[in-house]
Every structure is written in structure tokens, then in C-alpha cells.
Design a protein that fits this description.
The protein has 487 residues and is of the alpha/beta class. 40% of the residues lie in helices and 22% in strands. The protein has 15 helices and 24 strands. The strands form seven sheets. Strands 14-17-18-13-12-20-21 form a seven-stranded mixed sheet, with helices on both faces. It has a six-stranded mixed sheet with strand order 9-8-7-10-11-23, sandwiched between helices. The protein has a three-stranded antiparallel sheet with strand order 5-6-24. Strand 7, helix 5 and strand 8 form a beta-alpha-beta unit.
Length: 487
């Protein structure tokens, strides 16, 4: 039994069929959620060609027309929100509340992109020779979007909405783990609102074809820029291939994000932030709290509150109950990563204060203490519901522990002293930092992205517009520029 039957993949404004299909599984029980068309290299080439053919007319549209399409996009998302929520639960193993968040966030992303299209796209420059001199931005062409499985709808939309409304055309390849939430859902919307053919294309493929299709989305000469969200290992490879062709690349990668709880923090608020940041979507968020740093003066009372909150989180199939906040990990590979880190930590002296049990793809919310730098759970991204707690004595020590990682995506600081919070945030080597809030934060008009091995470039707001537009310098000569007489 499958939950739904897709129309195929979407290319050139048409639903098309691949020569074979692959199974899209429900991570909760391994059942087949859908049979998805497995596009191959020729299908990817065709989609890129469609996007290239559609680019001149789409870029030439008045920007207000592109804005209208984006607002229609948002309205259609609202109409289909229940379908998306069910898909987030069934295809992605997400909690009901996560589905609501993604559905709401998609609409805000579309509205923010529409608003950004009204922003400044250039400026007048001074000219020593009296020219009319100005800089302007224009769309680049075909943009490839390669999106992840963990928050598939939101992270796909964040990558394509701003380039699309700026006048670029899109070829989207969603993760093989979530091809509907991350891709085909948007194709259905484009079809419903009558987006011009070829402007938006969705190519779905299995692991067997992902290398060939992925390389084509990077190396095809018609592709002018690449958006990628995913693991640091894959991001390095994509960035290297894009660099070899001198193509723009905006990549948002993994994290080992810290939440620092100072001795003057509101402990109830801090415990709630730690609970949310560590365990939301089973910790499968790039911004999840993976180092919980707690001042030694308030360590004991904080731990009591934190453990009590985490113990109330219910584990189970999200489709069977909306109260099941902790669903399954996405696949067995991810379960094995979490298991390896837990076993390594315990073998090296860590203590399990809560949880620790693994049942199939379900991992209990787990709180670890006695963490040392030689443990895998300290060094590597976990991407699971595991919270390593580390005490600290001084703010400088907390900053050093938080920065002791190749990653630098997000961070959080809990303190009632805003000046102290700002001082700590300035010392953290992260692209984002949130005082008295969780590292898990995103707003579509703000610059989202990381430092160090957590990525290059920024999504959101004017930064999202600038990523995939080209800056041109244009002048109008008015008689002041002298040319040497010899010429």
C-alpha cells in the first residue's frame, strides 16, 4: 500500500515519467509511502534545457508579475497545508507541530521573497569624469537547488524563492529520502498556479542516479549557480566542483552548535530552550543544540529542570498520534551514527542521565554528562536526540568550548544581562547567535548561514537576492571623459 501516487517528475511545465521508479519509505515503519520516478542523466539535461529556454522571458517579465506569482504560490501553500503536514509526518517522520511550522514558514518565505523584489537593485556611483555611473543587479540564469531531507519543504523554499522572484529559473533536486516534501509538492503548486513552463523544474532520483544527476546540476554549462543544504562532506565536494567551473555556490552545511547557560539565566526559560533545541525533530536539524554548556553555579538546579522536561517528551509514530513529539530517525544509517556515538561516549566515561535506548529507528531523548573532548559525541555532528551537557566556570571557558569545533553555524546564550550576552555572542565563531533563545532560529528576511565548515554565503532577505544576481557597472558618457589625442 502507498499513501499517494505522484504524477511523475516535473520538467518543462509537464509531468514526465522516468524509465523506472524507486520506493519512498515511511521511516516510522519502513512501509512504502510512495513510488517515485527515478530520473536519470538525460532527464536532468532536459530539465536544465527547459529552464534555460524559459529564462529570457521570465527575466524580462515586470518584477511585479513575478511577485504576483510568488503570492499565488503562498496562497496555494495555504490551501494545501494539510497535505504537506501529513507528508512531513509520513514521509519525513516529523512531529505534527513541525509540519505546521513548515507550512507556515513556507508562506512567510514566499512573502519575504515577494517583498525583497521591491528592494533596491542598484545604486548611483560618483564619477570623476562626470559620467552617469551606476551599479545594477540582474538575474544570472538557471540555478540548481539541491535540498536536504530533514526540513525538506522549508529548506527547499528558502533556497529557490529569492532567486526565482529575482528572475532566475530553477531546477530542484530534492533528497531521495523526501522527494515529495522537498520537491514534488512545489511542482504541484507551480502546476496549479500556472507558472510559465520551464521556470521551475523538479527532478527526482534514487541513490543509484544521484551522482550523475547531481554532477549535471553542477557542471552543465547552462547552470550559473548552485544552492545546496546538507552535510559538510557533500558540501565540500559540491563547492569544489562549482569552483572548478567558477560558478557561484551558496552552501549551508552541518553544525555542532552550543547553547550557553550563564549563572544569571532564567532557568525555566533555559531548560525549555535546551529541550527544544536538543530534541526538536529528533535533533535532526543543522542548528540543533549539540553542546549544552552550563555554568557550574547553576548546574544542579538546571539539570533537574532540563531532565524533567525532556522526560515528558513522547516517542512514537507521528502519524499515529499528534502527541508523539519524538519520531523516528530518517534511516538506519543515521541510527547507526547515533548508536556509535553513544557507545563511544559511555565506553570513555560518559553517564546517561536520561534515555539512551534505541528501538529500531526510534531513539529516546538522551542526556549525557561526563563529556570529554576525545569522545565522538564532542567532536562530530550527531544529528540525533542526544544532548551532551558540559559545565563551565567562566564565560571565556564557555566560548572556548563552544568554538572547539570545525563547525560554526549557530549558537545561543542564556543570560539576564544583555551586555554579557552580546559580549559572549561576539566571541563565538558562528554565522548566527541568539541571546535568550535557541540556536534553532530562522526568519526569511534575515541573513542565514554559517562560518568555518558550516557553509559559504547567506540565505534570506536582500542577501538571498544578492546571492544569485550579477552586479553590472553601466555608465553614460556626457562629454567629460577625455581620450588621449594620439588615438
Amino acid at each position: 500500500m502507498t499513501y499517494f501516487t505522484p504524477n511523475g517528475f516535473y520538467s518543462g511545465g509537464q509531468w514526465r515519467r522516468a524509465s523506472r521508479k524507486f520506493s519512498d519509505l515511511n521511516p516510522a515503519d519502513g512501509s512504502i509511502w510512495a513510488e517515485i520516478d527515478d530520473a536519470d542523466l538525460s532527464d536532468a539535461k532536459s530539465a536544465i534545457a527547459s529552464a534555460q529556454a524559459a529564462f529570457p522571458a521570465w527575466a524580462a517579465l515586470p518584477f511585479t508579475d513575478r511577485v504576483d506569482y510568488m503570492l499565488k504560490f503562498a496562497a496555494e501553500i495555504e490551501r494545501r497545508r494539510d497535505d504537506l503536514i501529513k507528508a512531513v509526518q509520513g514521509e519525513g517522520g516529523g512531529w505534527f507541530g513541525k509540519g505546521i511550522h513548515e507550512a507556515n514558514a513556507l508562506q512567510e518565505i514566499c512573502k519575504a521573497a515577494a517583498g525583497a523584489a521591491y528592494g533596491n537593485i542598484g545604486e548611483i556611483l560618483p564619477s570623476a569624469s562626470g559620467k552617469m555611473s551606476f551599479a545594477m543587479r540582474r538575474p544570472m540564469g538557471v540555478i540548481s537547488v539541491i535540498s536536504p531531507w530533514n526540513v525538506p519543504a522549508l529548506l527547499s523554499a528558502r533556497q529557490f524563492a529569492f532567486p526565482l522572484v529575482a528572475g532566475n529559473t530553477i531546477v530542484l533536486k530534492p533528497s531521495e529520502e523526501t522527494p515529495y516534501c522537498g520537491g514534488l509538492f512545489f511542482a504541484e503548486i507551480c502546476d496549479a498556479i500556472g507558472l510559465p513552463a520551464g521556470v521551475f523544474n523538479v527532478v527526482t532520483c534514487s541513490r543509484d542516479n544521484v551522482m550523475a544527476v547531481g554532477d549535471e546540476l553542477i557542471e552543465n554549462p547552462a547552470v550559473k549557480g548552485i544552492c545546496f543544504t546538507g552535510s559538510t562532506a557533500v558540501g565540500r565536494t559540491i563547492a569544489a566542483k562549482a569552483g572548478a567551473h567558477l560558478k557561484k555556490c551558496c552552501i549551508e552545511l552541518g553544525g555542532k552548535d552550543a547553547l550557553i547557560v550563564c549563572d544569571d539565566a532564567d532557568l525555566d526559560r533555559a531548560a525549555q530552550l535546551a529541550n527544544f533545541g536538543s530534541f526538536m525533530h529528533q535533533g535532526q536539524i543543522c542548528m540543533s543544540v549539540e553542546k549544552l554548556l552550563v555554568h557550574e553555579k547553576i548546574y544542579e538546579p538546571f539539570m533537574k529542570k532540563f531532565i524533567a522536561r525532556a522526560a515528558k517528551l513522547k516517542v512514537g509514530d507521528p502519524l499515529k498520534s499528534n502527541d508523539n513529539v519524538i519520531g523516528p530517525l530518517i534511516n538506519d544509517k543515521q541510527v547507526n551514527i547515533v548508536r556509535e556515538q553513544l557507545e563511544d561516549a559511555v565506553a570513555k566515561g560518559a553517564r546517561i542521565e536520561l534515555g539512551g535506548k534505541i528501538n529500531g529507528r526510534y531513539v529516546e531523548p538522551t542526556i549525557l554528562t561526563g563529556i570529554t573532548p576525545d569522545m565522538l559525541v564532542y567532536q562530530n555532528e550527531t544529528f540525533g536526540p542526544v544532548a551532551p551537557v558540559i559545565p563551565f566556570r567562566t564565560d571565556a571557558e564557555a566560548i572556548a568550548i563552544a568554538n572547539d569545533t570545525p563547525y560554526g553555524l549557530s549558537s545561543g546564550v542564556c543570560t539576564t544581562n544583555e551586555q554579557r550576552g552580546l559580549s559572549i555572542a561576539e566571541g563565538l565563531q558562528t554565522g548566527m547567535s541568539h541571546i535568550n533563545c535557541s540556536p534553532v532560529n530562522d526568519e526569511p528576511n534575515a541573513p542565514f548561514g554559517g562560518a568555518k565548515s558550516s557553509g559559504v554565503g547567506r540565505y534570506g532577505g536582500r542577501w538571498g537576492m544578492e546571492n544569485f544576481t550579477e552586479t553590472r557597472w553601466i555608465t553614460v558618457e556626457r562629454g567629460g571623459k577625455k581620450i588621449p589625442p594620439a588615438f
